[in-house]
C-alpha cells in the first residue's frame, strides 16, 4: 500500500522533470520522425522517477545509500573487531607441513598452554634408499613438553596423523579429534603396541567449544577427500585463529554433509586475528569439482566393462571406494577389497557408521576365481605405483590370487602425488603390457582433488 502511494505521488512531477530536461537539451531543430518521438515518449514513461529531492522517501533513499556504504565497509573490514588493547600473545610454530606436502604439525602456544595441531608423516623421495616414512623433528616438543595440554587432530590423512604413534612412544598427551581420526589412530596404536594410550582419546563433537588449558577449540565440519574432516577455530585471549586443515568446498558431498560455512561466518562476524589455510591447489584457477562427479564416470566405465573391474585409489578416500562399490553392486558385481590399509579404513568407516554397506557383498581374494569375471569388482591400493601395493603385484604377476587378464578393466582413480610420477607410469606400463584396458586420466572426472582451487 505504502509503495503504491509513494509511486503515484512521485511519478507525476518526475515525468514532467524528465520531459523538461530532454526538451531543454535537445531543442527541436530538425523535424522529428514521428515514430521516433513515440518511442522516446514511451521510454520516458518507463524511466525511474527522479531520486534526489526533498520528499521524505527521497531523503530516506539518500540515507539508506549512505548507511549501506558504511555497512559494507564494516562487514568487509573486520580489523576493528580485533582487540589490539590486550597484551596477551599467541605463538604459532609450524614444525612441518609449511611449504611442503606432508608432515603437518603446528604448535599453538600461549603463556601457559600449548596444543599441537596434527602430527603427520611425509613420504621419502626416490633417492632416500631404505627409508619408509619420514616423521617430523620433535625437538621443540621436548623443550615445551610441560606446557603441552593436548594433541588436536583435523582429519585422518596420514600426513596429519601418521606420526602420532611415533610421538607417543616418547611422550603422551590427550588426543582431541572427531571419531574417524580416532578410529584410525586406534588401529595404529594397536599395530605399534600402544593400546594402553587409547584412554587418552577425547572424541569431540562438531559445533562445540572445548576448553584446553586457556585455549578454546571448536571443530567445524569441512569437506575434503576423507570423511569427517574439520577446520579448527582456536580462540585465545590474543584473538581467534582459524586453522582450515585440508579442504575443498564440495556442495554435493557423498554423505550430504556440506561444509559448515555458517560457523565460519559466525567467527568472521566476531573477528579473526589469523587464518592458517591449506595452500594445495591455491595456484589453480577455477573450482575443484565435487566428489560426486566421479560417480558418473564410474557408471559409464562399469556399464561398458565385459570382464572384471579393478579400481585403484588412495586407501583413505573412503567415499571414492564407496562410490565404486555402489556401481559394482548396480552392475551385479561382488566386491573384493585388496590392500591392508584400504580394508582397514573401509571397515573402520563401516563400523563407525559413516557408510552403510552390507558385509555379505564382500568376497575374499581366493574366492575371486570362483566367480564369473563379469561379476567381480576389485578395489585396491597402489594408485601411486607403490611396489609393495597390491596393484603393482598384480601387474607384475606377483600376486598370489589375482593375475591381470586382457579382459580386465583397470581404473586408476587418482593422480600422481608430486614425486610419484615415475612409479605411476611404471605400473601403468606393466598393466598395459598385460593387455588390460586401463583408464587413467582418460576422463576428466575419473579423479577429483580434495583441495580447493581458487574458486
Ligand atoms: Zn588431507
Number of strands: 16
Termini distance?
Answer: 43 Å
SS-based structural class?
A: alpha/beta
**Numbering strands along the chain, what is their spatial order in the largest sheet?**
1-2-3-4-5-6
Stretches where pLDDT is under 50 for at least 5 consecutive residues are 1-29
| Shape label | globular
Name the assembly state: single chain
Sketch the major β-sheet. Answer: 6 strands, mixed
The SSE order reads HHHEEEHEHHEHEEEEEHEHEHEHEHEHE
Radius of gyration: 30 Å
| Count, helices | 13
Bound molecules: zinc ion
Estimate the helix proportion, in percent.
Answer: 25-40%
Q: Give the overall average pLDDT.
A: 88
Q: Beta-strand percentage?
A: 15-25%
Keywords:
455 residues, alpha/beta, 6-stranded mixed β-sheet, 13 helices, 33% helix, globular, disordered N terminus, binds zinc ion
Notes on the protein architecture:
By secondary structure, the protein is an alpha/beta fold. The protein has 13 helices and 16 strands. Helix 7 (179-191) packs across helix 11 (340-351) and helix 9 (293-304) runs parallel beside helix 10. The longest helix is centred in the first third of the chain and has 24 residues, at 2-25. The relative contact order is 0.09. Zinc ion binds at residues 155, 157, 224, 246.
Amino acid at each position: 500500500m505504502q509503495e503504491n502511494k509513494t509511486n503515484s505521488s512521485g511519478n507525476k512531477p518526475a515525468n514532467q522533470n524528465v520531459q523538461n530536461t530532454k526538451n531543454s537539451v535537445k531543442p527541436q531543430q530538425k523535424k522529428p520522425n514521428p515514430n521516433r518521438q513515440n518511442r522516446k515518449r514511451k521510454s520516458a514513461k518507463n524511466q525511474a522517477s527522479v531520486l534526489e529531492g526533498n520528499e521524505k522517501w527521497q531523503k530516506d533513499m539518500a540515507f539508506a545509500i549512505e548507511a549501506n556504504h558504511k555497512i559494507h565497509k564494516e562487514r568487509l573490514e573486520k580489523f576493528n573487531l580485533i582487540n589490539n588493547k590486550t597484551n596477551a600473545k599467541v605463538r604459532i610454530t609450524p614444525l612441518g607441513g609449511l611449504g611442503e606436502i606432508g608432515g603437518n604439525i603446528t604448535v599453538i602456544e600461549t603463556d601457559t598452554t600449548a596444543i599441537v595441531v596434527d602430527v603427520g608423516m611425509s613420504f621419502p623421495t626416490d633417492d632416500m634408499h631404505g627409508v619408509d616414512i619420514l616423521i617430523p623433528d620433535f625437538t621443540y616438543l621436548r623443550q615445551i613438553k610441560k606446557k603441552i595440554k593436548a594433541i588436536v587432530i583435523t582429519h585422518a590423512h596420514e600426513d596429519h596423523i601418521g606420526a602420532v604413534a611415533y610421538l607417543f612412544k616418547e611422550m603422551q598427551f590427550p588426543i582431541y579429534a572427531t571419531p574417524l581420526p580416532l578410529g584410525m589412530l586406534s588401529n595404529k596404536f594397536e599395530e605399534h603396541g600402544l593400546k594402553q594410550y587409547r584412554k587418552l582419546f577425547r572424541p569431540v563433537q562438531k559445533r562445540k567449544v572445548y576448553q584446553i588449558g586457556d585455549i578454546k577449540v571448536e571443530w567445524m565440519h569441512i569437506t575434503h577427500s576423507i570423511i569427517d574432516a574439520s577446520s579448527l577455530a582456536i580462540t585465545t585471549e590474543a584473538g581467534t585463529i582459524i586453522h582450515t586443515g585440508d579442504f575443498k568446498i564440495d556442495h554435493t558431498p557423498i554423505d550430504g554433509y556440506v561444509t559448515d560455512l555458517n560457523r565460519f561466518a559466525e567467527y568472521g562476524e566476531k573477528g579473526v586475528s589469523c587464518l592458517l589455510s591449506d595452500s594445495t591447489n591455491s595456484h589453480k584457477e577455477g573450482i575443484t569439482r565435487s566428489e560426486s562427479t566421479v560417480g558418473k564416470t564410474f557408471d559409464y566405465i562399469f556399464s561398458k566393462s565385459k570382464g572384471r573391474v579393478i579400481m585403484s585409489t588412495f586407501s583413505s578416500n573412503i567415499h571414492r571406494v564407496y562410490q565404486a562399490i555402489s556401481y559394482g553392486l548396480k552392475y551385479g558385481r561382488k566386491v573384493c577389497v585388496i590392500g591392508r590399509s584400504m580394508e582397514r579404513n573401509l571397515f573402520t568407516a563401516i563400523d563407525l557408521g559413516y557408510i552403510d554397506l552390507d558385509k555379505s557383498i564382500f568376497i575374499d581374494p581366493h574366492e575371486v576365481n570362483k566367480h564369473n569375471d563379469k561379476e567381480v569388482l576389485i578395489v585396491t591400493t597402489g594408485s601411486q605405483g607403490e611396489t609393495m601395493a597390491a596393484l603393482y603385484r598384480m601387474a607384475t604377476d606377483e600376486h598370489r590370487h589375482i593375475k591381470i587378464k586382457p579382459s580386465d578393466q583397470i581404473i586408476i582413480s587418482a593422480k600422481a602425488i608430486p614425486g610419484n610420477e615415475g612409479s605411476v607410469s611404471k605400473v601403468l606400463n606393466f598393466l598395459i603390457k598385460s593387455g588390460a584396458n586401463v583408464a587413467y586420466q582418460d576422463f576428466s572426472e575419473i579423479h577429483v582433488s580434495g583441495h580447493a582451487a581458487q574458486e
